[in-house]
Amino acid sequence: MKNGLKVIAVVPARGGDPEVPYLNIKKLGTIPLIAHTLEEANKSHYIDRLIVSTDDDQVERVAREYDAEVVRRPDELAQNIPEIREVIRHAVETVENDDRFDIVVTLQATSPFRRAEQIDAAIDELVDNDFDAVISLKEVRTLTWHRPRGKLEPLFERPARRVELEPLYHEDGAIRAVRRDVLASSERLGEKVGHILMDKMSALTVHDIYDFWLAEKLVHLPRVLFCVDGGSEMGMGHVYRSLAVAKELTKIVPHADVCFLMRAELPEGMQHIAGAGYPIRVARQDADTTIGVIRDYSPNIIINDRPFLADDYLRALAGLGASTINLVDSLDDIEKPFELASIIIATMQEGDVELDDYHAGPAFAILRDSFRKKTNKVPAISDEGRKLVVSFGGSDPQNLTMKALSALDGVADVSVTVVLGPAYGYRSELEALVAKLSVKPEILKNVEHMADILFEADLVLCSGGMTVFEIAALGRPGIVLCQNTRERERMEGFARYGTILHLGLGTDVSEETIRDQAEGLVKDRGRRQQMSDAGARLVDAQGASRVYEVMKKAGDTGNRGPANGGRWL
């Protein structure tokens, strides 16, 4: 019941089908096709009675098994008829006694991925906006044509990219909610018609064996969308982290459909993901475009790995029905974390937080495979720390690489290796500096073996991102110079683990301080050993596996997904 209005739902389901015999009760996944619709209808907050209209004993048996009432339709309504309205009207009139229903919802059994919240959204739209009818639509953005009077004509003004085309809308038949008076009239939908927009998967209709084959693939297929950005300004840490999770996922669940959603104005991150072989969908920065692309992909699980998650974006995601997992450094990365009904994994924050799905701390640090393979053979700490590595991430926006190199030029008896990230933007300035240094460092670009380089280091100078976890896992001591104030605040807390020496905001630290601290650590084997031991205890390299388990749990939990019927294993 909605606002005192009685609601009946009717599922028309014949036994015979010209394309696929007994299509409506054919097993899709672990249950019959029609059962997917009946289970979601039974979850509705508004439906008072659920009716299956059929002409077949086997369909009736399945319908009753899934808690639906059954109305047997006469032979004349069991044939191929152009419009289902007479079938629906017969079912409603058969079960109506003295009490008349106010709203009639038609749910086609051949739409297995339509969800209960979408059914309720249609009823809300009907009542709250005083419509005569509300139908479910699928957005179509293609170069579409029609043939009025035999002449082929375009339904678009001009050819354009898909995202720039004016959308058309296809009535998918998954949901049709009408006022009872409209059903009793000669009109199909009435004068005032509203709609709800379906994602591609929810709108899927199973008409034939090909459709059924596709539905079978989808019902067993986890569709995971990583919403991530990385580039020269913001750094590449989010890209590296999400890529590590994606690889863990596809290693454990090879059949998973994994895709990345990235912004077109950040090409460095896109290039890195594309180089790893994963498909990418591109969106502009505005939230509406992003949500539209996500809806079109229709994921079971959405993984956000971005520097900041705005409340309006997360609320829009909540309306898509997918499970949402937010990979963040701390709760400061989320505008309103305590108002979320989604999962949060925060690697740089611990402590008691009153959130249902909150997982935090270095145990969830996500390392690339190359690092994980080396964590069980950490090298001994040398008596004299002669091998120094400078690595300030994928982009080094504050150009701390040059400051560190200038400082280390005064440290005696050390070799310095510099690793430049793919988005480092100060290469010409660096070349000019290197020419002036008394001891020339080794400059490495486009590095594919970062774990090997850090593994051999006696001391690492880095930013406060993923690298602090990587060197901890390898038992390598580190000096941290932060790129920004947010990073500095996190490293102030992280430093208590004893794996790094935190010097603060890199732009504020003098070269003399960097030189003195590096020189001190190089000579102090005992302190480097303590930092190494602390790191090995802190990060066990199983973070990506733990994140996968959180994802799998989300997939096994009825209220959070995977949405649209996806299964994990």
Brief characterization of the structure:
With 569 residues, this protein is an alpha/beta fold. Helix content is 34%, strand content 21%. A seven-stranded mixed sheet has the order 5-4-1-6-10-7-11, with helices on both faces.
Number of strands: 24
Terminus-to-terminus distance = 37 Å
CATH structural class of the largest domain: Alpha Beta
Instruction: Report on the biggest sheet.
Output: 7 strands, mixed
The CATH homologous superfamily of the largest domain is called Spore Coat Polysaccharide Biosynthesis Protein SpsA, Chain A
Low-confidence stretches: 558-569
Shape: elongated
- Helix fraction bin: 25-40%
The CATH topology of the largest domain corresponds to: Spore Coat Polysaccharide Biosynthesis Protein SpsA, Chain A
